[in-house]
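Journal club side-thread
Mid-discussion, someone asked how the predicted structure for our own chain would compare to the paper's figures. Pasting it here so we can look after the session.
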Amino acid sequence: MNRITEHPVLAAEPRARVKFTFDGRECEALEGEMISSALYANGVKVFSRHHKDGAPQGIFCANGQCAQCSVVADGISVKSCVTAVREGMRVQTLDGAARLPERSGVQEPGRVEELEPDVLIIGGGPSGLAAAAELGKLGVKTLIIDDKASFGGKLVLQTHKFFGSVEDCYAGTRGVDIARKLEDQLKEYPSVTAWAGATCLAVFSDRKVGVLRGEEYCLVRPKALINATGAREKSLAFPGNTLPGVYGAGAFQTLVNRDLVRPAERLFIVGGGNVGLIAAYHAMQAGIKVAGLIEALPECGGYKVHADKIKRLGVPVYTRHTVLRADGREALESVTIAGVDEKFRPVPGTEKVFKADTLLIAVGLNSINELHAQAVEAGLESFLCGDAEEIAEASAAMFSGRITAHKVLKSLGVMAAPVPQFWFDRLETLKSRPGATKAPAAAPKDKPVYPVLHCRQEIPCNPCVTVCPKRSIRLSGESIMNTPEFSGECIGCYKCLLICPGLAISVVDRRKDPQNPSVALPFEIGRGLVKKGDRVRLAGWEGADLGEAEVLDVKDFKAENTLVVIVKTTPANADLAVSVRLYPAEEGAAAAADMARADDETVICRCERVTLGEVRRAIRAGVRDLNQLKAVTRAGMGACGSKTCSTLLMTVFRSEGVKPQEVTPFTRRPLFAEAPLGSFSNVKRRSEADEKASWSGF
């Protein structure tokens, strides 16, 4: 079983075991677990075979947005990532030869309940929860729904500590803990009703919203609607991009951090934003080797502390590189990358091959705003917040939700205090791109014990300032974007080291031996990997190898789920050491010159397996309407409703010299999530035997 039994941050909750079968093979799952996670736990990566060419398919988003992970469960085609396993369930590979069985019995429509809250919030992530709490404070009748089994959105996938402001958005607290805090807040407000496992299907022209909660369908007619629906991951076009094992970083975090399933042994990542950098760190926490990470730009777009901490652990980060192809028979076996020039074209002779069984695509997000567009068209007061409005960090999403709640209050005519100006100011700060990187400050060598602050990039963060009992750490300016500085007294309490989200603080101690100082380093990768008496290699600020050092002690601060590794090092390295290095960085194997494949074979539309070549030919033939392109090639016609290919299709148009304004967009589908047709009238099925029994009573 590919389950994570030891994790430095997460602990598995005891759950009952259930039996199910996959293609006749007996498997075991945890009660309530999604089919996709259960299959990965049982070593299964191929979930379906495409009817067009028999190509193997696995997961991609693990968020219900695509249809890549579809299987047949008890005779019904379902998305495995949002369908829970049941005892005795028969799961089968979905392929072109599959024939779904006929279902006998009598259908009887049921009553459809109609609700009229003041506000309906779709999405229980950080922005939705923050909005609900703000409305609850004033007693506004609010219904918040989320299609997952628990609230928190992407926060439930985050094991790292968050940046931002301690007093405003729980900076220094792990995402999984913030999710619980936000959800618990709602219990204080009786006017707020929270439904987990409830999916919004559509907003209708009569301003009613269709919601499927479990197997019960209802209509909600709110006075105002808040769309806190988050974002979906972008795809990327390259040969082999649909192989099982090639999927989004969010899907990986779902498997690893939500479900404690180890889906990989060797991982490679495309994308140097915060999502990709954090996913690399999460992989190492789960005991997975990260072979490398690439970014097409000259620098990673994520926070420098995120990039530096994986470099220090031994992950090579290749900027100005792209992925050329992914290869494997039934699943991913290797990844080929290459350097790019100023126009992002691959440079011949720079190709490298890395063995990997998983390739994470972390190249950005698209806002999920279809329901908002439907609501506006229907004339319903509708608002966006969080990633549904603008892609940003979860800390910014909380402020976005609070501000949006006050916009709703104004639309409802509810008397409320005006929104403080600092909310808007703080939101803009939290959304800010990383600023300048400053040179390391000179360490105060005259102090017997002192922290070394290796966080030199301007990012919104202040936990170390807030937690210092001596108030010796201050920001270099008034904004939380300013870098921290140490001046004053240090008592060696490690509080700044333990709370730092970037693991960018070490503590030098010369009290016992001024000539041979000890250095305390944060370590979150796993208990037992580093022990007292070990010889370890040290890494500097940006990953430079500082040689070996002896481990004097390992302290386990279980409340913070952080270890402090205390090493004895040289005076020259004392102020430079930041981390223990886990393994040497790989370099990859040089690729053969003939390894390039015609990119016309690259799949653009996953659902219908429409290739880049097919799309290009249609565009060159004069197609400028995505609906016409759908009719000609079937691109966008699949089960996901063009959610995963629409951005790629526009990229192809641009590459062919067609301006976006010349392209007619897809006509939106009326429903945004699959549901049995009978759900809309709450149909209940009775067997033929039950029907005969009812007639026999006359």
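Post-session note: The mean pLDDT is 92.
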